[in-house]
Design a protein that fits this description.
The protein is of the alpha/beta class. The protein is built from 41 helices and 37 strands. A hairpin with a 4-residue loop joins strand 4 and strand 5.
Length: 1189
């Protein structure tokens, strides 16, 4: 990707941008060359960028002006205007740090506590607050725009003129993508909250951004890139107020922005220099990279690897060795010196002038090219002007064809998608075309995206009611639906899921008799072990169900293999030997299944290929076990289960929807498991040695954040910066390895895996654990020799063991036993000293072999070890963390990194000095990365947009707009001065005041007379915010409904919670409010009816609905309010009212719901008593009647 994003926190988060800025001064518009700073040490000062800049100060700032540190501190540090120092809307929230929180809590301790008790209380407070994360407000978003590596190389060695032109092309591309962001991405949110923020997403006038150019990478290689730091402050078009940017589209659009930036930059380069572009294969697990055709890959590699620094350090160490010993070192010694160099070459970023860097780059490039690098760059850029496309050159039938291709490509990797996904793929598929203007490219991408959207099926329901024109965008869509939030799927995906669901309900499949099952379950297995109760139940229900497609769900370590083995024995006892076959998404998982069950297995892709080419099929009565089924794609499962149904076989999917899912379009396993109320699930975890870890692993699986304390109490969690945690995890892993334990080191990214593998091998060489005199170079630039642990990364059935019993699979772990001069190696399974040797050809070694000391979570799934050491980043998902922390039988340790950017948790530990392991892991456990099936998405979307949370927020937002002028007139008609009244209406607190007035009116208070009386009661000379003071006075004066005794009227509340908005005369506004009121009332009924039907646990606290008609109606009215409260605040736990309310609005609703909860229980209890029953059993009268009868 050429664009990446991180969040910048308020305070001093901006300062890293200034560390390399040259001290020189001068004027350089963003679109002009970088040559002004050619000889200065450092990078150019930042420049202002974006249409929003015109809103700052009194218009004296313009795009291209230089950014001063003082201006950056005001804008990004404080959220103020960088010219006038005036606050831009609300100030950034000021969160207390740990010492201040501790001080505040200690001050509130009971003064009568004894010294000992107070000491204990203080110690507890200190421990709790130090474990909590501090918070920082989000000040902005740092988008890094990088040009492709081949273009950076060309820029690095070109003459000053060409270098300046490439820089200008880069700046234009950045400016055009920022303009695209302003049109398509930038938005803010306003209105009432819908649970995750304000409900209405509205456009802003423009972005306020600063751009900082950087020249090189940390290793000193050419890497021209620009940090575009976008302020979180933006002026809203709707009302001209300053608000915060909506972060959701900023995150969602990153891939689109990256694809667009790369294509726009390529267009500029072709227009200027006539260069051609090509897609280059970057190897397995990586997307192709676009590169300038004239730039050879050898030159790109020269400027893209640490290998050069390692070799330089190695040569220095060899020179020292020769000086000390008077002779050249042996091959074995050279390998050790290289290992030492590997550990010592972690370069810090150095500040150098562009002139200095360019001279070095040209020298290196000249060596690689065999001729003058600058002359080569001149030839590479001296091309004829090529033919360029305009948007109308592309026929519409081609647009439609590409649109269908986009849907197919996206549908291979996702079960559902949004417009952003389609747009990114459209940009990807049109990258090979060169356009005359950026407008032409954007137009074609938009047309292809429209065609792809038309070829997709919409899953998000249409708007349930019309929105007034003031709440509609120019294209007619409602601001209550975020731009590009609609979710789509394909007909192919939806039909495949339909067929899977139908097969799971088909009861015509083969079975095993209950007598056979009981016979098997009563006998111990070959290890003398009997099945557990849950395993016996699972085996029985699967064997006799008759379902064509069955599901077995089991958490990590729950004994799925043991249960499957017993099922195999039972099935073969009735259907004969060979009647059970196995499949798995990967060759390694298939081999594990074969070894565990002693059956024929194959990976799903190869089995289907053999079916197509060799006619391989299932047999009637067979049981087909698909292990690790959560990793199987939906379309693959559809094909396999369809064939099984045709021939009369049964398919059993075994897995865990809480673990990692398919890289293809997935969600099918979870869908099938949740579709049934009687899904077979193992619940007793057998893997772990410690009883507490058995229970703890289940809590991790379900995302229960309270379990973090359990792992902390047992010393399983450490936290710190990246370097400290990496060292700690590695050291602990190495200690376990040296102690003879089977252990695994798990981390998030391939880059981390490579670095840890490199370090492990270097240490093993230096301390003599590995004794090598020959090595081979692997794909990622690392090396391997005799004794090294490696992983093969590609299935190749042609590469077999000498005895013919084994072959090379993707993900298999091996030990190297020999390295040959031609680059081939001999490998064996770990622990074997003879037999089973396989020779890997040099070509395979160079492309498909990695060191195997560290792995990612995806590679770790299915592995069982003694211990596991897990590096956890804030960006990890619950599924990754759960899989990683359940590999070790004896112990699993987490090493939590606190100083990395976090895309899903607020606040962001990457910028937070008070972040803790607990806070990061809380975010991880709340970050569900599992993909939903299309069917589950339909349900989720209808629940989302039809919920009271959504409808109530829409209602309150429309009501505020509809009644605004009325309330403003009322304020102006009170005894306030004109200046005071205007300040109150323009205040941020005016919205809260109008909501309070609406609540008062719903409680039958006459606000027309009440408000003037409240205003006249006391002056406002000392008031900082008049609207806030009036709001407080109104709330106190109207805490209870108007009237008393029998004269008191029931409040006019929608679903017992929302104040009715009266006095709205605009027909469009009134209709919108009435429609939503009806929908909220209907939703409250539906939620209550669903809870009654499902016998939801929270309903028990309300008692049973009385049989008496009048009392039953009263009970239902009360229960309905509780149901509405739960839906409005998205409460899912078993307690009727959930966790204590946080906001003032929720506290009011919670009080109403609590009254209704008590009323419902009272109605149920009174009826029980009237019928001779209490809540605790029969009354004395009823018992006597029973005995008499």
């Amino acid at each position: 990707m050429t664009v990446s994003m991180r969040v910048m926190s308020a305070g001093d988060g901006y300062k890293y941008l200034l560390k390399t800025v040259a001290a020189a001064d001068g004027d350089r518009p963003l679109s002009t060359p970088l040559t002004r700073y050619f000889i200065e040490e450092g990078t150019p000062p930042g420049r202002w960028l974006g249409k929003g800049v015109a809103s700052l100060g009194k218009g004296e700032l313009v795009v291209g002006d230089q950014v001063s540190e003082a201006q950056l501190q005001l804008l990004m540090g404080m959220g103020h205007d960088p010219i006038t120092n005036a606050p831009l809307g609300r100030a950034f929230p000021a969160y207390k740090d740990a010492p201040k929180r501790i001080e505040a809590r200690i001050a509130k301790l009971d003064a009568t506590l004894t010294p000992g008790a107070k000491g204990e209380a203080v110690a507890l407070i200190v421990a709790e607050e130090n474990a909590r994360a501090g918070r920082r407000a989000v000040a902005g978003f740092d988008f890094t725009f990088s040009i492709p590596k081949s273009a950076s190389v060309l820029w690095a060695v070109a003459d000053a003129g060409v270098q300046a032109m490439i820089g200008a092309a880069h700046h234009r591309a950045v400016a055009e993508v920022v303009a695209f962001m302003e049109r398509e991405v930038a938005a803010t949110r306003t209105g009432a909250t819908a649970g995750d923020g304000a409900v209405a997403q509205v456009k802003v006038e423009g972005l306020i951004a600063t751009a900082f150019d950087h020249f090189d990478s940390r290793a000193g290689d050419p890497h021209l890139h620009t940090h575009v730091v976008i302020s979180n402050k933006a002026k809203t078009i709707l009302d001209g107020k300053w608000r915060s940017l909506d972060g959701r589209p900023m995150h969602a659009a990153v891939v689109v922005l990256s694809e667009l930036h790369e294509a726009v930059f390529a267009d500029h380069m072709t227009r200027i220099f006539g260069v051609e572009w090509e897609a280059r294969d970057m190897g397995r697990d990586r997307n192709p990279a676009w590169a300038i055709t004239a730039v050879p890959e050898t030159l790109v590699v020269e400027f893209s690897s640490r290998a050069r620094h390692i070799d330089a350090e190695k040569n220095r160490l060899i020179d020292e060795y020769v000086t000390a010993h008077g002779r050249q070192p042996s091959n074995a010694t050279i390998l050790k010196l290289r290992a030492q160099a590997t550990l010592s070459t972690r370069p810090d970023k150095q500040v150098r002038s562009l002139a200095d860097l360019t001279e070095e780059w040209r020298t290196r490039a000249t060596t690689i090219l065999g001729g003058d690098a600058t002359r080569w760059a001149m030839d590479a850029t001296g091309n004829d002007r090529p033919l360029l496309l305009r948007a109308d050159d592309i026929p519409l039938d081609v647009i439609r064809e590409i649109g269908r291709s986009v849907v197919e490509a996206v549908g291979e990797k996702r079960s559902t998608w949004r417009r952003w996904n389609l747009m990114a793929e459209a940009a990807r598929q049109t990258m090979g075309w060169r356009f005359a203007t950026t407008t032409d490219r954007e137009s074609v991408i938009a047309m292809v995206t429209d065609a792809a959207q038309l070829a997709s099926l919409r899953l998000t329901p249409p708007e349930l009611s019309l929105s007034p024109v003031v709440f509609r965008r120019d294209d007619g869509t409602s601001v209550f639906r975020p731009v590009n939030s609609t979710i789509f799927t394909s007909e192919v995906q939806l039909l495949a899921e339909d067929r899977l669901l139908d097969r799971s309900r088909d009861l015509t499949g083969p079975t095993v008799s209950l007598a056979t099952v009981e016979k098997i379950t009563r006998k111990p297995d070959t290890d003398g072990l009997l099945l557990g109760e849950d395993q016996t139940d699972a085996l029985t229900r699967i064997a006799v169900s008759g379902r064509v497609l069955d599901v077995l769900v089991g958490p990590a370590g729950a004994g799925k293999t043991t249960a499957m083995n017993a099922l195999r024995r039972a099935w073969e006892a009735e259907h004969g030997k060979g009647s059970v076959v196995g499949l798995a998404p990967s060759a390694v998982a298939a081999q594990v299944l074969a070894d565990d069950l002693g059956i024929e297995t194959e990976n799903t892709a190869m089995w289907w290929q053999n079916h197509l080419t060799k006619g391989l099929t299932f047999q009637p009565g067979q049981l087909v076990i698909v292990d690790e089924a959560s990793l199987a794609g939906t379309l693959s499962l559809d094909r396999i289960t369809g064939l099984a149904q045709q021939v009369g076989a049964k398919v059993l999917l075994v897995g865990d929807y809480a673990q990692l899912q398919s890289v293809d379009a997935g969600g099918a396993f979870s869908m099938l498991a949740h579709d049934r109320t009687d899904t077979v699930e193992l619940i007793d975890v057998h893997r772990f040695h410690q009883p507490w870890e058995k229970l703890g692993s289940l809590d991790l699986r379900h995302g229960h954040t309270s379990v973090i304390d359990t792992y902390l109490a047992h010393g399983r969690i450490r936290d710190g910066d990246t370097e400290t945690m990496t060292d700690a995890a590695y050291t602990a892993w190495r200690a376990d390895r040296d102690a003879g334990r089977i252990t695994v080191l798990i981390t998030e990214t391939r880059e981390q895996v490579t670095a840890l593998n490199e370090r492990a091998r270097a240490d093993l060489l230096i301390d003599g654990t590995l004794d090598q005199d020959r090595e081979v170079e692997l794909r990622d630039g690392t090396h391997a020799g005799i004794g090294d642990t490696v992983i093969t990364r590609r299935n190749d059935r042609k590469i077999t063991a000498s005895n013919g019993n084994d072959w090379v699979r993707n993900g298999d772990i091996w030990t190297i036993t020999d390295v040959r001069d031609d680059g081939s190696i001999t490998i064996r399974r770990p622990g074997r000293s003879y037999g089973g040797a396989i020779v890997l050809p040099a070509a395979y070694v160079a492309e498909y072999v990695d060191l195997g000391y560290a792995v990612t979570a995806h590679r770790a799934q299915g592995v069982t070890t003694d211990t596991a050491h897990v590096l956890v980043e804030p960006t990890a998902t619950r599924e990754n963390f759960y899989v990683s922390m359940t590999r070790g039988r004896a112990a699993n340790h987490a090493y939590v990194i606190l100083d990395r950017v976090d895309d899903h948790q607020q606040p962001h530990p990457g910028d937070d000095p008070n972040a803790s392991g607990r806070s990061v892991l809380t975010g991880v456990l709340q970050h569900v990365g599992a993909e939903l099936s299309a069917h589950e998405t339909i349900t989720t979307e209808h629940e989302q947009w039809g919920s009271i949370a959504q409808l109530a927020a829409e209602y309150e937002t429309i009501a505020a707009a509809a009644q605004h002028d009325r309330w403003a007139s009322l304020v102006r008609a009170s005894s306030l001065t004109a200046e005071q009244a205007q300040a109150a209406v323009e205040s941020e607190a005016f919205g809260a005041l109008t909501a309070e007035l609406r609540r008062a009116e719903a409680n039958h208070h006459n606000v027309e007379t009440l408000l003037p009386r409240i205003v006249q009661a006391r002056g406002f000379d000392d008031a900082d915010d008049i609207a806030a003071v009036i709001h407080y006075r109104v709330a106190r004066a109207t805490a209870r409904p108007a009237g008393s005794g029998r004269a008191r009227k029931a409040p006019r509340l929608i679903a017992g919670l929302l104040p009715h908005a009266g006095g709205v005369h605009d027909a469009e506004m009134r209709a919108a409010l009435d429609e939503r009121e009806a929908l909220i009332e209907a939703r409250a009924d539906a939620v209550l009816d669903g809870a009654l039907t499902d016998e939801a646990p929270w309903m028990r606290a309300l008692g049973t609905s009385p049989s008496d008609t009048r009392r039953a109606a009263a009970w239902r009215r009360a229960a309905r309010v509780v149901a509405a409260y739960r839906d409005r605040y998205r409460i899912t736990d078993d307690a009727p009212l959930g966790a204590p309310p946080v906001s003032e609005a929720q506290k009011i609703d919670a009080a109403r719901a609590k009254v209704c909860l008590d009323r419902a229980l009272s109605s149920a209890t009174e009826m029980d008593r009237s019928e001779g029953f209490s809540a605790h059993g029969p009354t004395r009268t009823q018992s006597q009647l029973g005995r008499t009868i």
